[in-house]
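Same chain as my last thread, 288 residues:
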Amino acid sequence: MPRQASYKAAPGLPMLVALLASSAALAWFTASRFIVGANLLGLIGAIAFITALVSLGGFFIVQPNEAKALVLFGTYQGTVSQDGFWWANPFVTKQTISLRVRNFETAKLKVNDNHSNPIEIGAIVVWKVVDSAEALFEVDDYVRYVEVQAESALRTVATQYPYDSHAAGEHSLSTHTEEVSHALEQALADRLRKAGVEVVEARISHLAYSPEIAAAMLQRQQASAIIAARQKIVEGAVGMVEMALGMLSEKAIVQLDEERKAAMVSNLLVVLCSERSSQPVVNAGSIY
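reply #2:
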């Protein structure tokens, strides 16, 4: 497996000056040797002049946050990551690869969550290349590879969590976004490591029930909300009844037997838990 190695390229400007000067000198030397009849020296000068011209093809520029991977006759030689003007063997093939941070949004995928409910989910993935050799030579197209693996990781993570949490301490896609994002980042990092790609960030960008069950799930959410609200109301009403009975007994305002206490508790709970305002009834007679 090829790993990124640094290639020590020669500075471009000194090499340009040297090659231009040597080319001019060799051109004059070759022409003068042929003029005086020194054909052998002229032939040697011509070969050297052609070599100098060919060497001019070894110059290349590395832009900021880019790298050049150098390959000589099918063998990886190294990578130049330092931006600037450089010179290398003119027979070396130079492949440009961007080291900039990139991002993309996956398609909206339809998957089943941990409770087998069909949902739609999408994610935004931020990534960059950290190993040019692996990105170029380990996979056929590293950009396409990232996109496909991102969808695969998103499907895997989505099946591990329910859409909504229905139990205490249960993580869900809709309520525990940090945990889900961390799991997605880890799943992506495991898949993209072999391609020399680092995942900077991954987060959910779209989450919804599939249209065919969206209405039913909305009713379920509304019912869960009503039940939770009712539980709070009942807890509060019981506390208020308990407090009322305790204060009546403590201050000896009235003495109630068990039957009257039960009736009072029933009436108070009806008043406190009712959705509508209660209608007062004045008792003009004895409570007994």
